[in-house]
Amino acid sequence: TVTVPPNASVALPLMRPVTIARHGAGVTTITAGAGVTLRPANTMVIDAQYGTATLVQVAANEWYLTGQVSV
Description:
By secondary structure, this protein is mostly beta strands.
């Protein structure tokens, strides 16, 4: 599980992409930390082994998640 932390804990620059890759056979879950909003959903999983997802912070505690993900 990858938890996206609130901006007060880890302040990353806006619009800088963060890529997450699923290397093993297990499930990689991406979830929002306290006070964080992930769009399109607050908990998503990378669909397939070797799949990737990219997070982009668009506001202090708001992130867009794109790639090979599902709810």
